[in-house]
Design brief:
11% helix; Porin; 3 helices; ten-stranded antiparallel sheet; mainly beta; elongated; 233 residues
Length: 233
């Protein structure tokens, strides 16, 4: 996530520098002044993600370590104006990510490591609360609910961790919170944002053996993630 944060800061700095005359001057030229008066408009986004697991245990013991990687997001945006400062947003997208679980108390890597590759189709329905527009800048906060289909869940597999198959449920529900800034350029709106996504239910499919060393002591396993998206309208 450090690389993502540095990239975001560099991009925002570049955007601010290139648009400084139109956005940050004392008397800026107002770009796309009537754009947000539209009832409905569309866009697309590209971005990065970092997924983790929140793991609760039945009994105390050594924690399972989760190694995170940086994934990639792409999707579309439909934005419906409800009120001057409130919009309803639907942002379906495709999210790629990978997590590696490192189990303690195993002597071989074959048993200790489980790669969890995930391809998500993500369906968030969000409310966007915007502030007053200042020149060509408009900050906002966003929050709502989402549902996610994991195409790589292995949920239909009859094999389990004994055969090195780590299984999770296909569908999950989540809540999301975040913030962003709309930058109004001459021809389009550029909107970087950061958002947290938190699963609301247990996603783990237990092994066939109730005393499995991989799943037997897990009370619940829930995804959580950070999204950094760059939206263009």
């Amino acid at each position: 996530m450090k690389k993502i944060a540095v990239f975001t800061l560099l991009l925002l700095s570049f955007s601010g520098h290139t648009q400084s005359k139109g956005m940050f001057s004392k008397d800026p030229i107002i770009n796309l002044e009537n754009f947000q008066k539209q009832r409905l408009y569309f866009g697309y986004f590209l971005g990065f993600n970092s997924f983790d697991f929140k793991i609760d245990y039945k009994t105390a013991g050594p924690d399972i370590q989760v190694k995170k990687t940086t994934g990639f997001n792409v999707g579309v945006v439909a934005d419906l104006k409800l009120q001057e400062y409130i919009n309803l947003r639907f942002e379906p997208g495709l999210y790629y990510t990978k997590r590696t679980l490192n189990y303690p108390n195993f002597t071989t890597e074959k048993d200790a490591l489980r790669d969890v590759n995930s391809t998500y189709i993500h369906f968030p329905l969000l409310l966007k609360f915007s502030s007053l527009r200042t020149g060509n800048i408009r900050p906002y906060i966003v929050g709502g609910l989402s549902t996610t289909l994991n195409l790589s869940s292995n949920s239909k597999s009859i094999d389990d961790n004994v055969q090195q198959k780590f299984r999770v449920k296909s569908w999950s529900t989540n809540y999301e919170l975040g913030f962003g800034i709309d930058f109004f350029s001459e021809y389009f709106i550029f909107s970087p944002s950061i958002r947290g996504c938190f699963s609301l239910k247990d996603e783990l499919i237990r092994d066939n053996d109730p005393n499995s060393p991989w799943t037997g002591n897990i009370e619940s396993l829930q995804s959580r993630a950070v999204f950094i998206n760059f939206t263009f309208h």
